[in-house]
Amino acid sequence: MQVRVRALETVLTEKGYVDPAALDLLIEAYETKIGPHNGAQVVAKAWMDPDFKQRLLADASAAVGSVGQVSRVGDHLIAVENTDRVHNMVVCTLCSCYPWEVLGLPPVWYKSAPYRSRAVKDPRGVLADFGLALPKDTEIRVWDSTAETRFLVLPMRPKDTDGWSEDRLARLVTRDSMIGTGVPRRPQDIAV
Question: How many CB atoms lie within 10 A of CB 46?
Fold first, then answer.
């Protein structure tokens, strides 16, 4: 795959369609400024700071903006919280509306027609396909993103993480846990 990407980049550069410096800046932005690490920091802060958590659930756009994460496309961000009784999952049934600034590039499956339709019709089955089996009495709420409104799932904080720093907690948060198709990593799954 890397060889193909490099070959495509070379051809596009030689034909004058791509400026390598601009491409490098774009890649650097997605690696360092935009991406799921931003959302993970927001989630970890909400796990640590009850006041921030309440602000996040009340107005996610403002709360996320208060920590320097601002949407460049002006969409409204809503945070929904997973609990023992409710599990939230996000989809965009029309296309692939997605909060890029806090989650990075949308995964291919998020944009696929099967995910977009099955997430609404059979959310429990979709979660099972992702390896997430929830208790039968857990309510599953599916949130449909639009061009104006995007969602961020606030996953449940893993057990046995008392006393952890925000940075360490952020390492547990996965992109899929912020979409609702997964859960955070377990404490024993990360290096200390």
Answer: 26
SS3 helix, strand, coil % of the chain, rounded to 5? 50, 10, 40
Cβ atoms of 65 and 102 closer than 8 Å: no
User: Token pair 């390896």 is at which residue?
Assistant: 131
Q: Which residues contact 121 (CB under 8 A, 6 or more apart)?
A: none
Return d(Cα 90, Cα 151) in angstroms, integer.
7
Question: Which two tokens mark 124?
Answer: 């429990």
Q: What amino acid positions are annotated as catalytic residues?
A: 92, 95-97
CA–CA distance, 53 with 60 (Å, rounded to integer): 9
Indicate left, alpha or beta for 42 from its phi (over 0: left) and psi (-120 to 50: alpha). alpha
Mean pLDDT of 134-159: 96
Nearest Cα to Cα of residue 91 among 57, 130, 63: 130
Confirm if 183 and 155 have CB atoms less than 8 A apart: yes
Q: Whose CA is closest to 130, among 181, 184, 185?
A: 181
- Confidence (pTM): 0.84
pLDDT digit string (tens) for 58-83?
A: 999 999 999 887 766 557 999 999 99
What backbone phi and psi angles, to 5 degrees, belong to 90? -115, 145
With a cut of 80, say whether residue 1 has pLDDT above it. no
* DSSP for residue 189: G
